[in-house]
Amino acid sequence: MIFRQLFDSETSTYTYLLARRAGGEAVIIDPVLGATDMYIKLINELGLKLVFAMDTHTHADHITALGTLRDKTACVTIMGEQTRAECVSHGVTDGEKIDVDGLVLQALFTPGHTNESYSFVMPDRIFTGDVLLYRSTGRTDFQGGDAHKSWDSIMNRLFKLPDDTLVYAAHDYKGWTVSSIAEEKKHNPRLIGRTEQQYVELMNNLKLPNPRLMDIAVPANLACGKN
Ligand code: FE
């Protein structure tokens, strides 16, 4: 399998490129507009054909490359069916399997960070977007975010996966690149030792500033990154 974790240093975003084999079909998860040329170059160098570009949710901190990648490669753009981004070509539903040349990713509806957040599961790993981060969880104070739903998605969906499932998140601000379900169950400081109510209180009182690009990024992303 080809698996590349790409990092956008300006927004601390991780983008993932996956393919079953060199020369085969590929999928990209959470691509950033400013890095489009790099993705295309890498895809060409590996001889891949990009068939799907997916966002785990409508990002508030960077502009998506979905629309531009669709224009440049004719790939199918995917988000959860609950998204308001009308330019998405296919809205996935909970449990739906996305087959990329034999590489299967299953969509898992994990709202909480936003009301349209999905995770994508493979047998050995999961792409959690921002609902579960490395030793943290995604903020729940805008875009339909809901701390109760975040708790439910993490405890009753993500933490039901096998312990050794690798966790790949959409962001990190501390230099982490990967974790596992077992690690997050044991060591995630937002979750351990808390009841649901205590978690909700914590999340509702984080008092974080809005992302720098939020007023630009959200409207742009509802148009797949194209004005
Ligand atoms: Fe986010």
In brief, what are we looking at here?
The protein has six helices and 14 strands. It is of the alpha/beta class and 227 residues long. It has a six-stranded mixed beta sheet with strand order 1-2-3-4-5-6, covered by helices on one side. Strands 7-8-9-10-13-14 form a six-stranded mixed beta sheet. Strands 11-12 form a two-stranded antiparallel sheet.
Q: What would you call the structural class?
A: alpha/beta
Largest sheet geometry: 6 strands, mixed
State the total count of DSSP E strands: 14
- Proportion of residues in helical segments: 10-25%
CA radius of gyration is 16 Å
CATH uppermost class: Alpha Beta
Q: How far apart are the first and last residues' alpha carbons, in Å?
A: 35 Å
How many independent structural domains? 1
Regions with little confidence, pLDDT below 50 for 5+ residues = none
Mean pLDDT: 96
Ligand inventory reads:
fe (iii) ion
How many helices? The count is 6
Shape: globular
CATH-defined superfamily: Ribonuclease Z/Hydroxyacylglutathione hydrolase-like
